[in-house]
Write a structure and sequence with these properties.
disordered N terminus, Rossmann fold, 10-stranded mixed β-sheet, 6-stranded parallel β-sheet, Dihydrodipicolinate Reductase, domain 2
């Protein structure tokens, strides 16, 4: 073990699977599935900025999404990035240069995220690392008194997510999960339409992620680049030789991510949960494989998952479809009606449909439509609904970072000041992430799983009498001895 690893283990502490489960058991009590239901304001913590003060943040993870979040943060008045962190020195140097261009002041640079947590001037951190690091970094950040903006999915496994909820509440931290569609007015508008009852009785819902992706070509193991601290990049994940594909596409390797379903499906699952006022499915079955691209990824490029939910108005079935070899939208209109300012139709490559006996509600991107339940009704185009009035102006969409991301980061900064929970709380992030994790587990074990909504454990029978041992083992992972789970 290196000296750095020894220091990490000493500062982290360690605890067993039993201890990990016990400490996280309270996390499941308050899962919030609806967008409009916010927890009470958090107690004011010592050392937090006054409402008039600037907010100082640090960035952990300077890859593609990390740089996008830097761009968004630069659009938020009173928000300063003072320190950037990445285990690849080239990435952190590029991020520091970009902050210099945006802010006129170069931030500090480090390869150890704990330097951000030790900095008393930093109020919050953005975590944009691969999924296998999320739990460790968030738990450490909360225990250090930092607020967190966390990219979804919230964690690699369901039981990590439970622990994250528990610790965020234990330390009264603001956690904003990067479900930026919550900043769009269509999010609340669509949920209101569903809850109005105007769709009729809802028996089925559907979400999907379609794309025509380039295959990932398998490559042999190799030496890591000189700029990369590969051991620290692996962190809690199993020790393996460096492979360029696994490093470039960690989301498509089971050690580090849950595939495209977890990356993109989580956003539409969040929309669905909010509209239908649900949080945890009763059961899941999933099948698929690496069938369309037949490339170097471990996670499926084609997946069909079917869930059963119990909502306040009755039971409904939900179907999620993933296809990365063909982007054609087979659900609803193949192309949406043109928006004002656009010359042609827009493809519907991902979205949400809520199918009632009277009408079908359709979300996609920034679109919201009412489709017919039968052949006789016309499409009602509710068109572009923009972003909420509490955030940035709609004109931001013409250039620069995604306006919904800017609005989401702006809300995070406001909540650091106010100590109120943001719209995409850690509970909402857990609720949106869990079904896709469950679908991946059902796919990997090859059978239908029943879910205890209070413990998130998997069973082989609807009466929840027989735990599914293999599935529950996939719901938690072993940490490397040199990077144990934090004892917080």
């Amino acid at each position: 073990m290196t000296a750095d690893q020894t220091a990490f283990a000493r500062s982290s502490g360690s605890f067993s699977r039993r201890s990990f489960l016990g400490r996280s058991s309270a996390a499941i009590a308050g899962v919030a599935g609806a967008a409009g239901v916010l927890r009470p304001a958090l107690a004011q913590s010592t050392g937090q900025p006054a409402p008039s003060d600037r907010v100082i943040i640090g960035l952990i993870g300077c890859g593609r999404r990390g740089l996008q979040l830097l761009e968004a943060a630069a659009k938020v008045p009173g928000l300063t990035v003072s320190l950037v962190c990445d285990v690849d020195a080239e990435r952190s140097a590029a991020a520091a240069e970009r902050v210099m261009q945006l802010q006129g002041r170069r931030p500090g640079v480090t390869s150890d995220y704990r330097d951000l947590l030790d900095d008393a001037d930093i109020n919050g951190v953005i975590i944009a690392t691969p999924d296998h690091w999320h739990a460790t970094q968030l738990l450490h950040a909360c225990a250090a008194g930092k607020d967190v903006y966390l990219e979804p999915p919230v964690s690699l496994t369901p039981l990590e997510a439970k622990a994250m909820v528990f610790v965020a509440r234990k330390y009264s931290r603001v956690v904003q999960v990067g479900l930026q569609q919550r900043a769009a007015r269509k999010f609340a508008e669509g949920a209101g339409i569903v809850r109005s009852g105007n769709l009729g009785r809802i028996a089925q819902t559907r979400t999907w992620t379609f794309a025509r992706s380039e295959p990932i070509t398998a490559q042999p193991d190799a030496a890591p680049p000189p700029s990369l601290d590969y051991d620290r990049w692996l962190g809690p994940a199993p020790e393996r030789p460096f492979n360029p594909v696994r490093y470039a596409h960690p989301e498509h390797c089971w050690d580090y991510g849950g595939g495209e379903a977890a990356c993109w499906g989580v956003h539409f699952q969040d929309l669905l949960h909010a509209a239908m006022n649900v949080s945890v499915p009763r059961s899941v079955v999933a099948f698929g494989g690496n069938q369309g691209l037949a490339d170097g990824r471990e996670t499926p490029d084609t997946l069909e998952a079917l869930f059963e939910y119990a909502s306040p108005t009755g039971t409904f079935m939900h179907a999620y479809s993933l296809r990365l070899s063909n982007a054609y939208a087979g659900f609803g209109p193949a192309a949406l009606p043109p928006l004002t300012g656009h010359t042609g139709p827009l493809p519907a490559r991902s979205g949400v449909q809520i199918l009632g006996t009277e009408k079908t509600l359709y979300f996609s991107g920034r679109r919201l439509l009412l489709l017919p339940a039968g052949e006789e009704s016309p499409i009602e185009d509710l068109a572009y609904l923009g972003i909420g009035s509490r955030e940035v102006a709609a004109g931001e969409s013409a250039a620069g970072p995604d306006p919904l991301t800017v609005a989401h980061v702006q809300e995070f900064a406001a909540c650091i000041r106010s100590r109120k929970d943001p719209s995409a709380s850690i509970e909402a992030g857990q609720s949106a992430s869990f079904p896709l994790m469950a679908a991946n587990i059902a796919y990997r074990v090859g059978r239908k799983l029943y879910i205890n909504p209070n413990s998130f454990e998997f069973y082989s029978d609807p009466e929840l009498q027989t735990p599914d041992k293999t599935a529950n083992e996939l719901a938690i992972r072993a940490y490397r001895a040199s990077y144990p789970p934090p004892n917080v």
